[in-house]
Amino acid sequence: MTALILNYFRENSGRFWGMLAAHVQVSILSLGIAVLIGVPAGFLCVRWKKAQKYITGLFSVLRVIPSLAILLLMVPIMGTGTAPAVVALVLLAVPPILMNTVAGLEGVPPFMLETAEGVGMNPTQVWTKVRFPLAMPMILTGIKTAAVEIVASATLASKIGAGGLGDIIFAGIGLFKTELLLIGGMSVALLSLLTGLIFAIIEKSTMKHRTV
């Protein structure tokens, strides 16, 4: 098996790196859009409580839908390719970012907010200098969860023509080649672990803000 794996990389190294690059590109794009939606949506939920049940309710429903189902639902709407894959991955990634943003912002101790107001901070300063910095570790945890989910689910996105490491896995299934399944599966697993490690380092660097 080792010989088959080594032979694959000798003959297909360029193609492998191309698929890895496509996987990373789709994942980063999807995560970036999800953050731009999830964090502001979480702010709106905390800022205007009446909107919270509607926003969180909508994304809570999306969270329980299987990844493959969302991807396949995009096909009749947007066709195949990268665009529908990104939309589907964004829908999967927004809920953990949204929920953690809400939890982080609501979890700021009231006395910290009272102290900030007592020293003369205006509402905008309270949000930008107190609430968001203190909530950042929780928000980053949600982003990390979303990132790992995106990396894993992007594998399925190859089913709708988005490319990526999923191409290797599905080729292995179609050709009954175990070495392809191992190469694809291990690559996705390592990429997921690397993603988690990167965010763990970022989270650790933000813990200095939790001086409450």
Structure description:
By secondary structure, the protein is mainly α. It has a single domain, classed as MetI-like (MetI-like fold, Orthogonal Bundle). The protein is built from eight helices and no strands. α1 runs parallel beside α8. The longest helix is centred in the N-terminal third of the chain and has 46 residues, at about 1-45. The N and C termini lie far apart (about 55 Å).
Count of distinct structural domains = 1
- Quaternary: single chain
Low-confidence stretches: none
Fourth-tier CATH superfamily name: MetI-like
Proportion of helical residues:
over 70%
Principal-axis shape? elongated
Between the first and last Cα atoms, what is the distance in angstroms? 54 Å
SSE topology string? HHHHHHHH
Specify Rg, calculated over alpha carbons: 20 Å
* Strand element count: 0
Alpha-beta content class: mainly alpha
Largest beta-sheet characterization: none
Q: Using the coordinates above, name the CATH class.
A: Mainly Alpha
The CATH topology comes to MetI-like fold
Instruction: Using the 3D structure, state the CATH architecture.
Output: Orthogonal Bundle
Average pLDDT for all residues: 85
* Strand composition percent: under 5%
How many H/I helical runs? 8
